[in-house]
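Researcher: Here's the sequence for the chain we discussed earlier.
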Amino acid sequence: MGALLVAVTFLGYFSASIAYIAALYEDRWRKWGFGSVVVGLIAQSGWMIQKAVLLGTFPDGTLYDWIATFTWLSVIIFFLIQLFRPGLPVGGFLLPITTMIWLGSQSLSRRLVVPPHLHGTLLKIHIGTAIFAYVAFLLASVFSIMYTEKERELKRKRVRLFYYQLPSLETMDAMSARLILAGMVFFTVTLVSGILWAKQVFNVYWLWSAKDVWSAVVWLAYIAYLVLRAAGWRGHKAAIYAMSAFLLVVINLFVVGVFFHGFHFYNV
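Model: Thanks. This is the structure I predict for it:
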């Protein structure tokens, strides 16, 4: 049953990605995209409920589960955007990324990494806030992609349908900045709770594992964005920076999280 739900989830999200990309050029595809998202979201919600019942807790103990939750939350936020702003063409930019991340996670280990006796409130805060932070960073990069696409359309002077559906450049620039600020609030809590958990479990605040160091790199990269923003960075440069910074997040998940040891190590 679990394998069937995973397959339906992928097919739903993949179909929605294709339909929403098509909707950037032909608006009639949007309803097909929305229907496919609903199918995928229902299937993934069913999978998560099934997994939670089996584990007796929310599924977040492995990188596979963590990415599933990250994808699920991203799609829920997209679903809410479509309910309240159906004309905003986020789907053609967001869903292909979430679908690729979901697909990439299928090769990851389902083994439990942290022994159950080490779980606690601090670890739950650490894991939960990391998910919200990375979703915010993902959405910021999506608005930055949308910004660069609208900017390119303006320069080409041969605009397509989605040009008229996208918000103004100023609005997308501001949205990206606000999402990064929100993400940094969550990610700071992630790091602090992780440091306190390490002290509680290992009696040291910082383990200097690859994951710890790379997470600090991600945090510093986004701090630098906020500093540059305060110094007057706007528009194209800020959008390129936000997209590049999210690549550090992807590396943190699929390279550092998989191939390097420590309590964040996930055996493939």
